[in-house]
Design brief:
Elements lengths: L3 E2 L5 E2 L12 E4 L2 E6 L9 E9 L3 E2 L3 E5 L6 E4 L3 E5 L3 E7 L5 E8 L22 E3 L5 E7 L5 E10 L6 E11 L5 E14 L4
């Protein structure tokens, strides 16, 4: 089946832009959510993106909500909420029945050093925006498989940057494959800069 490209370049940052502890993602029932927020001046809104997966659309257009800027320490998805952990609070984004983010609430902690946390070791990231990758190999992570047998995979593709041998130009996308494993749709989440871990 011919590959149908449904490309949405959500974010395109300059080489000097670097997100601090950003690019986390989590997977809920028939959706994937991810976040970006640049704290470097000028401070930009912190955005959380939600993409519904499966059904007739396959890969839906991203729905977005803006929340205050903070450094994310963990992220977790459930059927109706997305939770993001800050140092001093827990932000809970509430989803409607179509998995669109509609509002958020904030729970502040009296003692930031003593509270339940979402982070458990290394949290998954999308790659790029100053993050490291392991070599220039294409990285694939299966996000979910729907009731029709379609599989949705996160792909991180680093290519060597002409600026330096340790730098990478990274494209991150979601690819939908049918039950025969043929790719039928893809959506680019972003293109950005990264670097190769342990490169000297």
């Amino acid at each position: 089946m011919r590959l149908q490209r449904v490309i949405s370049a959500i974010l395109l940052l300059a080489a000097t832009a670097c997100a601090d502890s950003d690019g986390y993602y989590c997977v809920g029932r028939n959706y994937v959510a991810y976040q970006f927020g640049l704290a470097a001046p000028p401070v930009r809104p912190h955005r959380v993106y939600v993409i519904r997966l499966g059904g007739v659309e396959g890969i839906a257009a991203p729905a977005t909500i803006e929340i205050p800027q903070f450094q994310v320490h963990g992220m977790a998805c459930s059927d109706s909420t997305i939770r993001l952990e800050a140092f001093d609070a827990l932000y809970t984004i509430h989803l409607d029945q179509l998995r669109r983010p509609v509002t958020y609430t904030v729970e502040r902690w009296e003692d930031p050093r003593n509270h339940p946390v979402l982070s458990h070791g290394n949290q998954p990231r999308l790659g790029g925006f100053g993050f490291s990758t392991s070599g220039f190999n294409l990285q694939r992570t299966v996000l979910l498989k729907d009731e029709t047998g379609h599989e949705f995979t996160l792909e991180i593709e680093p290519k060597q940057s002409p600026s330096h041998r340790c730098d990478a130009d990274i494209t991150t996308r979601i690819v939908e494959a049918d039950a025969t494993h043929a790719a039928i749709r893809q959506q680019v989440l972003f293109t950005g800069k990264g670097f190769i871990a342990d490169c000297r």
